[in-house]
Specification:
The structure is a homodimer. By secondary structure, chain A is mainly α. Chain A has helices spanning about 15-20, 20-35, 40-50, 60-70, 80-90. The first copy, chain A, has a domain at about 10-70: Mitochondrial Import Receptor Subunit Tom20, Chain A. Helix content of chain A is about 45%, strand content about 0%. The interface between A and B is large, with 51 and 51 residues.
């Protein structure tokens, strides 16, 4: 009856909905690839449980992401995949926050 | 002389180099916007110190990112900015990991 689910606070419906879409899973996997790429192990240790990895969905690793995104020939091994996505995006950087001319 | 810097283990040169570029900072800011968008507060609590936010660089918030990326008119408030970047990217999702037809 009045069984209060204390865990419900941890249910992140927005994220669950997002991860229910193919693109959402890809974006989340790209975020995770970024964290992995830079060895942000402490962040990953929190990111995985907080996003319910393995429970709600499984992240794709870099090689599978490259495959899924058709990036094979373009991929720069020295960059996280999100940099490639940005490069391939029509988005242009309009303003540089720090001009830093040398 | 033999002053071993125990902190040196925490220096993430790859990330520092990445964040020294405008595009790197943008990508990192987009990753952070994703974490913020989904209220991944525990992850953020680790992400910020691990990436040296404020120390090495400051993340741009969503509104400033939208501005910087020229996304103003395109932005879907129900999605993290990375979804917009993906949508605007030439990258096409070649394979769906789970066809899930309804």
């Amino acid at each position: 009856g009045e069984n209060v689910k204390t865990k419900s606070k941890l249910v992140n419906q927005n994220l669950i909905d997002f991860l229910s879409t193919t693109n959402g899973r890809l974006v989340a996997s790209l975020v995770r690839e970024f964290l992995e790429f830079f060895d942000l192990d402490f962040t990953l240790a929190v990111f995985d449980p907080e996003t319910n990895i393995g429970k709600d969905f499984k992240y794709r690793e870099r090689s599978k992401l490259i495959d899924a995104l058709g990036l094979t020939e373009l991929t720069d091994k020295k960059s996280p995949l999100l940099s490639e996505i940005m490069r391939l995006s029509k988005v242009s950087v309009l303003k540089s926050e720090s001009p830093t001319p040398t």
